[in-house]
Structure prediction request, 231 residues.
Amino acid sequence: MKKESRAIRALRKMEHFWSKEKSLTFLLAILLVYIFLIIPLIHRNSSGEIIFFIFYFLLLSSGWPIFKQFQIPGIVWLLIIFPFAFLINELYFLATWERVAADLFIAGYCVFLIVILLLRTFADGPITIYRIEGAIAVYLLIGFSFAMVFHTMTLLHGPSAFKGLDAGYHTYKEYMYFSLTTLTTTGYGDIVPAFPFARSLANLEALIGQLYPAILIARLVSMELMSSRRE
Prediction:
């Protein structure tokens, strides 16, 4: 009973933490470390898998309090437990269909998390620095989601889906790099989509990368100016 009560208290503390706006700062820090340090620098060995799992846990648990508000039976288990099941399959099993299922489910989870963060960012109330950080976190999640989809395309279509990839195309660092350069419309040209559907998604990501800062983040600034004028 003591262990169960401790687990319940831990879940309540986690839920209380993620329900506050300050948690958006922590989520942004997680994404920055994960995308710019963990993915490109940590190798997928036994110790590296533990680090990947920890960061996935922090990312996936960030949507916990919002999912509970839907009060739909089973939605919390579907969107919290299933990603961990797919993640474990992806880390420890090498079957293609398991990797594809894990990538697509986690990408879908990130899209759902993007919607939640946007709702929190543009909710009623004063525009704080935490909301700005939430908007930046959404931008990084967009790039991460596209990276997972690009990786899925290579698993299904083979390494010929992209030109310029390394031989070990099962790693995520090349796809994260390509996704961010596409999202920011930098386009170095060292990695090029060759599969038609990959080209279409790359164009879509570049379009989102142009429109998102111009519309959504600018909207936050205008909301802050309007709030200041009212005061």
Observations:
- The first strand starts at residue 162 and ends at 163.
- The chain has a mean pLDDT of 78.
- The beta strands are 162-163, 192-193.
- DSSP finds nine helices and two strands in the chain.
